[in-house]
Amino acid sequence: MSSFLYSLGRAAYRRRGRTLAIWLLVLVLVGGVAGVFNKPFDEKFTLPGTQSQAALDSLSLTFPQVSGTTAQLVFATPDGDSIRDARYQDAIEDTAKDLESIAQVESATSPFDENIDGAISDDDGAGIISLQLRGAQAEITEETKTQLEERATQLVEEFPGSQAQAGGEAFSENRPGVSIVEAVGVVVALVVLLLTLGSFRAAGMPLATALLGVGISMAMVIGATAFTLISSTTPMLALMLGLAVGIDYALFIVSRHRDQLADGMEAEESAAQSIATAGSAVIFAGLTVMIALGGLAVANIPFLTTMGIAAALAVAVAVLIALTLLPAMLGFAGDKLRPKQRKPKQRKPDQAEGTGPRAAGGLARVWVRVVTKWPIVTILIVVAGLGVVSLPAQDLRLALPDNGSAPAGSPARTTYDLVSENFGEGYNGPLIVTAEIVGSDDPLGVMDGIADDIRALPGVADVPLATPNENADTGIIQVIPESAPDSEGTKQLVADIRGMSPQFEDEYGVETAVTGFTAVGIDVSDRLGKALLPFGILVVGLSLVLLTMVFRSIAVPLKATIGYLLSVAASFGAVAAVFEYGWFADLLNVEDVGPVISFLPILLMGVLFGLAMDYEVFLVARIREDYVHGKSAHQAIESGFVASSRVVAAAAIIMFAVFASFVPTGEGVIKAIALGLAVGVFVDAFVVRMTLVPAVLALLGRRAWWLPKWLDRVLPSFDVEGESLHHQLSLASWPSPDSNHRIYAEGLTMRSQLGTAFSDVDIALQPGELLVIEGQPGAGKTSLMLSLSGRMQFTEGRAKTAGFVLPEQAGAVRSRTGFVAVRSESDVCTDIRRANHGRPDILFIDDADRVQSFDARQAIATLIYDVTSGASGQSLVIGVGDAGALADLLPPDYLRLSLNRTYEPLSVHNAEGTR
C-alpha cells in the first residue's frame, strides 16, 4: 500500500493543477445536483418488523382518516375565563370550520365535538383543535403552516390576553442549522494548526481541504434526499465528523512533510513519502471509522443505517482529499513550506551536552517520564478516575426526540408547553391502540369494552376516543398517558397495554396492537438497547483484530481496547451528568434535562472507536518503529512519545474544538452527540492514549511486543509506518545508479513450515540473456521463478526485477513479466503467445523440459533465438528438471542456475564458469 500511495502522492504533486481542477469540478457538480433535486428532510422514524410500525402501516390502509400528519391549535383563555363561554366556543368552532378550508387540511375537530372527550382542560381554561393533514410531514408546505399560525394569531387578536398557537407533528423542526458559534471551532483549529505547524500557509492547507471535503459530503447527503428519507441529524453528524477528521488527517500528513523538509529532503520526494507513510496511517484510521459507522446497521434501523452511511461517506471523502488534493497543494507551495533553520543556542560553560530543559525535549518528555516512573500508580489513578466519571452513565435514559426538545420559542415547542401546562404532558404523546374487529357482531360494544379496560390501567390519564372505521373492520382507541412521552411511566403503560392482548383476544375475540409516534419511539429505544451488546462485541472484536495486524502484538491491542471502553464509559457519564442530572446545563445552554436520543450510545461507540484507533495508531506506531529499529522498550516509549505527542495533542484539541462548538447552539439531538464526542475525544487522547498507554507499555516492557509466531504468519500486515517503502527507496540505486539488469538478486531464501525451498541465491540477468534454472521437483525451482516474477514472496534477501523492488513493487513486476507453466502439450503454444503478448521485459517458462511435440519445442526455440539474438530486447528464464532435455534448443552461451538439496550458496553459471 505504501508503494502505491508513494506513486499517488508524486503524481498528484506533479499534476497539481489538474488535481485541484478535478476536485473543484466535483464540488460544483455535486452541489448543482443537490441544489436541483434535494427534498426536505424527514424526521419520521420507522422501525420495520415491530408491532407499532406494522400497526401504523396497516392504519394507512384501513383507517386513512388517522394516517398522514397531525397538528394542533391550542387556545388558552385569559386567566379565570372559561372556554365554554359562548363567545369563546363560537370563535373556536368558527376557527375549526375555517381551518378545513386550508388546502392540506383533511379535517379539523373542535374540542366541543360530541365524539371527542378530553380536548378541554379540566379547569375549562384551554381547548385543542385537532388537525389531520394530508401527506407525510415532509410534504406539509410552509404555506400551510403559515396559514395555521395566522388563524391562531387571529384568535389572540380577538381575545387580548389569551394564548393560541399552532403546532404539533407538522411543525417539528426538520432543517439543520449552522450558526456562527460553530465557526469558533474552526478558529480554534486554525490557531492550533498555526502553533503546531508554525506557518500560516501550512496551517491553512488542512482547513482548506477539510472545508472542501465537508462541502462535497454535505452536498452528497442533501442530494441523497431525492432518493431516500434522511433526517436533519444526518448532515449535521456528517458535518461534524467530516470537518474534524478532515483537519486531523491533513495535519498528520503536513506535519510529516514539514519534518522531512526540515531534514533537507527535496519537496516533491517529501510530499510523496508523506503520503506513503502518514497517508498509510490515515487510510487505516479512516477505514476503522468507516467500518464502525457502517456497523450501525447491526441495529437494523433504517434511519440509523442511513446516518452511519452518510457519516462514513464524509470520512471517505476526507481521506480521498487528504491523499490526492493535499499533495497537490503541497506542490503549489513547494519549498515555501520548508521551516527556517534556527541557530542553536550557545550552551553555558557549565552545561553539559544533552542536559537542560531544551535537551530534555520539553513538556512531552517530562510528561512521559512522570507517567512511566511509577506505571502502576499511573494506571490505578487513571482507571479509578475514569471509573468515577463514568458513574452517572448508569442513570442515562434514552428516547426519541419530540417537540419538547425543540428550540424554545418555536411553534412546536410553544404548543408542546401550552398542552403540558393546561392538559398534562401525556397529551403530547397519545398512544393509539388498534383492534381488528372484522369478525365482531358488536363493533361499538367491543371498542367501548376495550376502552374501559384500558381506562382502568394505572398511568392512564384519559381515553378520549374509541371508534371503528367506516367498514367496521378496524377500530382505534386513543390513550392519553399521565406521564411525558419519553418517561419510564409511559414506557411501562405501553408494556401493560400490550400485556393485555391475550385478555382482549379471549374476551372480545380481537387482536390488538399499540402504535403511534410514542410507541414507535419506545420500540426504537428497545431495539437499540438490545443491539448495543452485539455492536459492542463487533467493535471490540474488530479493534483487537485490526490492532494485532498493525502492531504485531497481543498486549497492545488488549490495552488499546480496554482504553477505548474507558473512554466510552466516561463519555456516557458526562452526557448523563449534563442531560440527566443537569450539571453545567446552564453553562452549556441545555434548556431541557431528560432522556437523550436513543441511538446516542451506539453512535458514540462507533465514532469514538474510529477516533480512538486514530490516536492509538499515530502514537504507538511511532513507539513501535523506534523499538523495531533497535532501541530498548523504555527508550522507544520516550522517543516515540516525544516524536508523535505534539501532533496527536494538536489533532485532539482540534477535534475537541470542532465537536464542542456544536454544543452551545446545536439542536437537542446534536447537543448530546457533540458533547459525548467532545468529552470522549479529550479523554481518549489525553487521559488514555497519552497517559495510560505509556504507563502500560512501561509496565510490560519487551512483553508488550510479543506475538506468537504462528499468529504472525497468519495475520496480514499493515505497513502503516511505511517500512516497505523505506526498503524500496533504499534500493532505488541498487546495485548501481546506472544499472539496467532485468533481474538482480542477492541472498534470496525461502523458508516455510515445510522446509527450505531455496537458499542464498544470487542472480544477475541482463537484457538479451537466457537463464536456465535447473531443479528437481520439490527443490524450489518453481517457487524461485514465482518469486522473481512477483507472484510469490521470498523470506530473506533482496531482489529487483524489471527495475522494481520485490516484494514491495510486485504488482509492477507482474505487469512487466509473463509466466508460462507447462502443464499440457496442447496449450503450450497458446500460453506462450498469450504470455508474450505486448513483449514483457522478462518471460518465465517453467517445466519447459516437459515439452515433447515439435510445434511446442519450435515455439520455445524461436523464443530463445529472439531473446539471445537481441531482436526482442527481452530476457528469458526457463525452469527445467534436467537441462539436458533441452540441449538441442539451448545456445552455446547461456546462464545456468542449479538448485540442489544441500542448499549451499548458489550463483549463476554459464558454459565457461561462474558469473
UniProtKB/TrEMBL annotation:
Alphabetical list of PANTHER family matching this protein: MEMBRANE PROTEIN MJ1562-RELATED, MEMBRANE PROTEIN SCO6666-RELATED
Higher taxonomy: Bacteria, Bacillati, Actinomycetota, Actinomycetes, Micrococcales
Major place of residence: membrane
Location(s), subcellular: Cell membrane
Domain SSD: 181-332
Record protein name field: Efflux RND transporter permease subunit
CDD domains: ABC_ATPase (cd00267)
Tree of life domain: Bacteria
Keywords: ATP-binding, Cell membrane, Membrane, Nucleotide-binding, Transmembrane, Transmembrane helix
Transmembrane domains' residue ranges: 20-37, 180-200, 207-230, 236-254, 275-303, 309-333, 374-393, 531-551, 563-584, 596-620, 641-663, 669-700
Organism: Saxibacter everestensis
PROSITE patterns linked: SSD
Family from the record: Belongs to the resistance-nodulation-cell division (RND) (TC 2.A.6) family. MmpL subfamily.
Membrane topology reported for the UniProt record: Multi-pass membrane protein
Region of interest (Disordered), ranges: 338-358
